[in-house]
Amino acid sequence: MGQQVTRRLQPEDQNANTWNSNYRRQNLLGRLLRNRSSRSQSPRMTQNFVDLHLLPPELGLEILKNLNATDLCLASCVWSDLANDESLWEGLCMTHWGSCSAYHTWKSERKSFKKLFMLLDEGSLSFNTQPEWGIQYLIEHGVLKDDVKDIAQFFHFTNQLCWQKVRIYLRERQDILEEMIKLQSYKDQFLPNALRKFFHAVDSPTSRGDYLNLLIEKFAERFCIDNPNLRLTPDVITILCYSLILLSVDLTSPHVKNKMSKREFVRNICRAIQRDADHETVVDRDFAGHLYDNVYLVGHIAPQRWESAQSLQRN
Length: 315
Description:
By secondary structure, this protein is mainly alpha-helical.
């Protein structure tokens, strides 16, 4: 009988403990909110503020997750255990550098993610000064592997690099450029929008040349692979890309007084494509008209300004 009573009381005891824990947490949160609201009324508010150590660890970590690296370092002077938690620094690393080789082994080898953040930050600053130095620094410190795919993914998933420097680096490392293009997906995307996404990823050159020719060639191949239902060849996509770029310059450049009309653009596209495709109609007039409307309404194809319409047209 006593055993049966004990079994019946155990769930109640657990519920009581849970209720006490929740009450304690709500009480602490209530104190935090009251102290915050009385900031303007109490000049000695800092003496009444609840220390993060008094909060449940998971709640303290949630608060510290809102800090950047500089503020987190300052917080570590007061809350050393919480502010140096590996999960916080791992999250900061992943936020700024979505992919790097060290992520695969760093945790299993019990290395500090705070140190990894400092290495990534230093490597990025070095890259933005001299790209070769930055990549070499990251490789030497075990952050990146000297591997084409790893470097391409590092470029693709970060927001800490100067894209002008990335463009300079990719001109010398076309193998990495090809891997970056493979990371893009243009499935079921309208051609002008896909081209904008492409230039946003690899950065657009400021004038026509061999580098632009290479970019358009690689993009055309990738676009055709992702959209086989369109039944367009890379050569046709290449012609359309150059036409869209020229149209962008024509419509957005203040130096061009006589803007190309929709009728002129459609006529030029149909003539160029038919001539290239042995007089087979592969792009109809409605499709060409939609291309013009997109550029007219959305804006330039490339995120950077091109030097001038004349520089493209002369080449």
